[in-house]
Amino acid sequence: MQRSVYSFGNGRADGTRDMKRTLGGKGANLAEMTNLGVPVPPGFTIAADQCMTYLANSQVTEELRQEVATALSQLEEASGKRFGDASNPLLVSVRSGAAVSMPGMMETILNLGLNDATVAGLAAASSNPRFAWDSYRRFVQMYSDVVMGVPIHRFEQLLATKRLVTGAASDAELSAEALQSLVGEYHQLVHAVTGQPFPHDPQVQLWGAIEAVWQSWTLKKAVDYRRVNSIAHDLGTAVNIVSMVFGNMGDDSGTGVAFTRDPSTGEHRFYGEFLVNAQGEDVVAGIRTPLPIEEMAQRLPGAYEQLLETQHRLEQHFRDMQDIEFTVERGKLYLLQTRTGKRTTPAALRIALDMVDEGLITPRDAVKRIQPAQLDQVLHRVIAATAHATPIAVGLPASPGAASGMAVFDPDVAEQRAQRGEQVVLVREETTPEDFHGIVAARAVLTARGGMTSHAAVVARGMGKCAIVGCAALEISHEQRSMKVGDVTVTEGEWLTLDGGTGRVFLGDLPTQPSEVMRVINGVVAPEDAPSYQRFHRLMTWADEDRRLRVRANVDTPRDARVARNFGAEGIGLCRTEHMFFEGDRITAMREMIVARDEGGRRRALDKLLPMQRADFEGIFQAMDGLPVTIRLLDPPLHEFLPHGGEESSLLAASLGLSRQELQRVVSALRETNPMLGHRGCRLGIVFPEITEMQARAIFEAAVRAQRRGIDVRPEIMVPLVSDVSELRHQRAIIERAAEQVMGVMGDQVQYLVGTMIELPRAALTADEIATEADFFSFGTNDLTQTTFGLSRDDAGRFLPHYLDRGLLPDDPFQVLDVKGVGKLIRMAVRDGRDTTPGLKVGICGEHGGDPRSVTFCHESGFDYVSCSPFRVPVARLAAAHAALAS
Ligand code: ADP
Ligand code: MG
Ligand code: MG
Fold first, then answer.
1. What are the C-alpha distances in Å from 243 to residues 92, 127, 540, 837?
2. Is the pLDDT confidence value at 408 over 80?
3. What is the pTM of this model?
4. Which residue's C-alpha comes closest to atom 20 of ligand 1?
C-alpha cells in the first residue's frame, strides 16, 4: 500500500527534495534540509493526494487516521513530550504546502495542542507563564479565525481593549494575568459567534486544522492564484505537522526571514529581517517593524553565525537563491522553511550570471532559469529624468518598474475600475491574500506597512508588477477612501505615479522613459555604460547558442527595423505596405488611385506612389543589410483609405475634381457587409493587377539601387490571403514580369523569393498545391485563428471572456496559439507543403510569434523562423532556446 504520511527530523527523513508532487514544496524541502543535517524541528507531512481524496469524499479515511497517529507517537517519542499532556505538552504547527509555492495563500496555525490544561504545563516547563499564555492567546485567535471562521478583528478589538485597560503600550507589555483573562474573553467570543465551545481536545484541534488546510485549497483566493499562474487545480496541498519551536521565549529568542541574495537587485549579500522575542508571521505581517538581519550579529550572536553558515550551505546545495524562514529558541537556531526565492528580473539575471561565474551552474542552466515572459521587466519603463517632480513619500522599492494610475483603496474597487479600462494603483495599509484580485487588477501596489518580504512585496514581484511597501508616511483611511501624507490628501481617483525601482511616490501622472536596456537598444546610451544591458546581452548570447529557430520582427519602417535589429532580430518577417500609404500626400495619391474611373487613371496615381514606396523599401533594405526582408503586398480593403463623410469628404471631392455625389457613389460601392472576408489581400491584386505590378517594381528598383550601394538585399515578396494556388500563380506571374523588366532595364540581378501567407483554412487544406508556386509559407495566425474559429477578433471581446472564465477555452486563442485546431491545420500545411517543395521555408508572422508557448509549438513543428513585434524579439529568442533545450 502507498504510504500517505512522511516523517522528518532528528537527522533522518522519509522524503527528499524531488518529492514535491507528493510532499509539496515546503514538505519536500523540510525533508531535504533534515537530510542535509540542517536543524529542523521534527514533524511529518501528509501527502497532497490526500487533499483531493478528502475533498472528493468529505471525510477522513481510517487508514490515514492510523498513519497520522503512528507518526504523532513517533514525534512524541523523539521530543520526549506528549500531545495533550498537561505537564509537558507537545505543541505543533499545521501548515499547508502545495507542489508549487503559493505565497500566503493558506494560513498556518501555530501552537496547536494548547488548552486550559496544557497551558499550565507549558508555563511550568518553560518557567515562563507569560510566554505560555501569549502562545495560547495567539493559538485561540488563529485557530478560531482560520478553522471556525470567527473574524480576526473581533479578537484584535478585545486585545486593544485589554491594552487600554491595563495601560500596556504594546502587546509585549501585557502581563501573564492580563493574557489569561484575555484568553477567557476569547473563549466567550468564540462561543457567542459560533454557538460552539472552543475545542479543547488536541485531537479535535489537530483534525480540524488538517481539514481546514485541505478546504483552503478551494478558497476563492487560492483558485484565483492558480488560474493566474496556470497551476493545475487537481494537485492538492500537502499538510505539514511540525513540532513547535518558540521565538517568543525572551530576548535570546527570535524569528526572521531572509534571502541568500538580494531579491531586488541580485547583489550577492545575505539579505533579511528579524524580530527579537517574536513568533511566526510577526515579521511578514508588518505589525512590528523588523530589524535588518545584520543586527542579529549583536542581538543573537551564536545563532547568527550558524545562520550565515546554514544559508550558504543551502544555497550551495540547491544551487539557487533561497528564501528561508528561521526561528531562534533560547539561542538555538532552527530552519522552518527554504525555497527558491522570488526575484525581480534584474536580480534573476544577475544571480544567474554570478552563479555561472562562481561555478555553481552552467550557462545553459542560466538560460533555463530566466523565463521568457520575465524579460518584459528589464524592458520596463522608468520615470523620465525630465519629470523633475518631488516625491510625496518614499517607501521600500519592492518591485521595479514605473507605473501611474488612479489611487484606489479597496481591492474590489480596483477590480471594478480596471474592468472599465481604468488604470489604478492599489493603496493599502498592508495587503493580505484577500487582496489578490485587486493586485492583479492594479498597475502598481503601494502599502504603508510591511517589509521587503511582506505579502504585497512578494506577490507583486512574482507578477513583475511595480510595488512600493512600508511607506510609513502614509495615513490611510479606508472609510474615507483617501490617504494623507503630511498635508497632502489623496482621495480615490486621484493620480499617483510610483517608481518601484527607488520607492518614490509622486502625485499625478508623470511621464516615464525607457529602461537602461531600452536606452542602449535605442542607441541613446553606450553598452559599456550600462551594466544591466551587459547582463541582458550576455544571457541572450547564450540563449542564441542553444536555439534553432530564427527570430525576425514585424516592422514597417526603417527606424523600427533598426530597433528590431538591436533587439537581435534576424530579418523582417512581415513588412506591411499599407501603412506607407497613410502618410502626408501619399494618402491623396492613394485615394486618386481608388476613385479612378479606369486603368489609365489608376496607373497615373500609382506612378506617383511608386517613388515613395521605393524610397521606403530602400531604407528598410539598408537597415536590414544582409538579412531577409519579407514584404507583404497591399492587404486591407480599399474603403479603409477613404474618408467616411464630413468635411474631409468635401475636401477630397474638391481636390479630386469630383462632385460629392460622385465620391459618395465610390465610397458606397466599396462598402462591404463583412470586410474581413471581403475584397482584400490578393483579391485586390487580381482585380487591379497594376497595384501588384507597381509594388513589385518599387521593391525591385529599391533592391537594385541598394545593392549598387553595396547593401546585401534579400527581398521575400509575400502574397496575402491566398485560398487557391491559382491566385498565387496569377500574382507570381506579375511579380516575375516586373522583376525581369526592372532588372533588364537596370542591368543588375537581384535574388528574391515569392511566397504566400497561409491565413485561410482553404490555403492550409490545399498547401500541397500552393507550395508548387511558393518559395515560402508564412502563417498569418491572426487571420487564420479568426477564420478557423469563425469569429471576428474585434467582436470577440463580448463573449470570449466568458469562455475563459468558464474554462471552455484554456487560453485566449489570439494570445496563445490554439494548438488543437489552428495548430493542426498548420502542421498539416507544413507537412504537405514540404512534401511538394522540399526545403520550403516556413515562418509565422501573427502576434503569436512573440508568445513563448506558441514559439514552442513553432519549434516543434519544424518552422524556420518566428516573427513578432520588435519588443517581443528577446522574448522569442529566449523562448526558442527554451524550446530547443526542452526537446
Ligand atoms: P507560509 O507559507 O505563509 O510562509 P508557514 O507554514 O511557513 O506559512 O508558517 C508561517 C510562519 O510560522 C512562518 O514564519 C514560520 O516560520 C512559522 N512557523 C511555522 N511552523 C512553525 C513551528 N513549528 N515552530 C515555529 N514557527 C513556525
Ligand atoms: Mg501563511
Ligand atoms: Mg513560510
1. 4, 19, 46, 69
2. yes
3. 0.82
4. 93
